[in-house]
């Protein structure tokens, strides 16, 4: 009996672990682009789901950004069907702020979220790898985006709509997904955007990480991924402390929300800034930058009568012993 290819064994084990707590008979969705990462994920999920009595659907989003995008999507759907998955192709129009890459990502997640709700899926599986995680952390570090960005992507998260997102391959190298496809006889699609150096992620992948590996030694990608995992653990602990604190110091105000100045001042800067960001995000749906957060915090720590601070979607002012956030235009 031939031995199982190591790449196939590694990815099947990763998927098996991710699916372990899903109830028999439930449905899962695999986000399938046709590239090696998502193709290996789809094939491994098809194999593992059959043993657990799970139904698997493959959703391929055609962003229409390349001339042959429809053909690529249909090819991915045929492969999904050959693997025993229920294929679905959705064409979207990509538009919005942040450039085509961000707009395509937003459109893709909307489609996956809608599909998950329509099928009452227990989870959506995404094909991000350890290499993707390392690139995300390095980009966040270069942009000075703070700990939230350096946490990278979560292995598992649930959004406000109740959709559960799983990344079974986040501990798997990209080379392993290619080896899986080769061993399984799967013809993976190479997205031309993945070699287009107009994109910062491509430059990190093709230039920056190889230089770091050459100059500092192997294991840089793994080290960056470990950093993300450690920061995520720290963030979860911070979030728990913050939610416990917020219950005692936050009050609803007319057209907004207010926070006790004394309570904010009593906390260290790390907690104080996180509380400010969380309050604004939860009440107004706005993510403050580091500069905006520090400026608001000065109303607590360095107040000399300065007036309101205009923020995206709201304003902040000190009123008596409270920091008051009010919706824009009120």
TrEMBL record:
Q: Where located?
A: Cytoplasm
Residue runs in coiled coils: 221-248
Span of domain tRNA(Ile)-lysidine synthase substrate-binding: 260-323
User: Which residues make up the binding site for ATP?
Assistant: 33-38
- SUPFAM superfamilies for this protein: Adenine nucleotide alpha hydrolases-like, MesJ substrate recognition domain-like
Name the Gene3D superfamilies on file: 1.20.59.20, HUPs
**One GO MF term:** tRNA(Ile)-lysidine synthase activity
EC no. given is 6.3.4.19
Domain (tRNA(Ile)-lysidine/2-thiocytidine synthase N-terminal) ranges: 28-206
- Spell out the HAMAP family in the cross-references: tRNA_Ile_lys_synt
Copy the domain comment: The N-terminal region contains the highly conserved SGGXDS motif, predicted to be a P-loop motif involved in ATP binding.
**NCBIfam families to which the protein is assigned, alphabetical:** lysidine_TilS_N
In UniProt terms, what function does this protein have? Ligates lysine onto the cytidine present at position 34 of the AUA codon-specific tRNA(Ile) that contains the anticodon CAU, in an ATP-dependent manner. Cytidine is converted to lysidine, thus changing the amino acid specificity of the tRNA from methionine to isoleucine.
Q: What is this protein called?
A: tRNA(Ile)-lysidine synthase
Q: Which organism does this record belong to?
A: Microbacterium sufflavum
């Amino acid at each position: 009996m031939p031995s199982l290819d190591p790449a196939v064994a590694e990815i099947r084990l990763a998927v098996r672990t991710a699916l372990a707590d899903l109830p028999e008979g439930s449905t899962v969705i695999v986000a399938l682009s046709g590239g090696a990462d998502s193709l290996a994920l789809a094939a491994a999920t098809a194999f593992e789901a059959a043993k657990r009595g799970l139904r698997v659907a493959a959703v391929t989003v055609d962003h229409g950004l390349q001339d042959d995008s429809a053909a690529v999507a249909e090819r991915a759907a045929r492969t999904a069907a050959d693997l025993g998955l229920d294929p679905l192709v959705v064409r979207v129009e990509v538009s919005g702020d942040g450039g085509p890459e961000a707009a395509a990502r937003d459109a893709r997640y909307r489609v996956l979220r809608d599909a998950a709700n329509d099928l009452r899926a227990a989870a959506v599986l995404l094909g991000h790898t350890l290499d993707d995680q390392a690139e995300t952390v390095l980009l966040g570090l270069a942009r000075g985006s703070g700990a939230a960005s350096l946490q990278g992507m979560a292995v598992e998260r649930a959004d406000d709509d109740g959709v559960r997102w799983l990344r079974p391959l986040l501990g798997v190298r990209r080379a392993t997904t290619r080896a899986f496809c080769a061993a399984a006889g799967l013809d993976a699609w190479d997205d031309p955007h993945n070699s287009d150096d107009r994109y910062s992620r491509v430059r990190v992948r093709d230039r920056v990480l190889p230089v770091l590996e050459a100059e500092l030694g192997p294991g840089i990608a793994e080290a960056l991924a470990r950093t993300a995992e450690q920061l995520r653990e720290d963030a979860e602990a911070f979030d728990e402390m913050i939610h416990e604190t917020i219950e005692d110091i936050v009050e609803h105000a007319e057209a907004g929300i207010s926070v006790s100045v004394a309570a904010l001042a009593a906390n260290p800067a790390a907690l104080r800034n996180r509380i400010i960001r969380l309050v604004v995000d939860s009440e107004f749906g706005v993510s403050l930058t580091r500069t905006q957060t520090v400026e608001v915090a000065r109303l607590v720590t360095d107040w000399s009568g300065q007036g309101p601070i205009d923020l995206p979607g709201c304003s902040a002012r000190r009123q008596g012993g409270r920091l008051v956030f009010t919706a824009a235009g009120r």
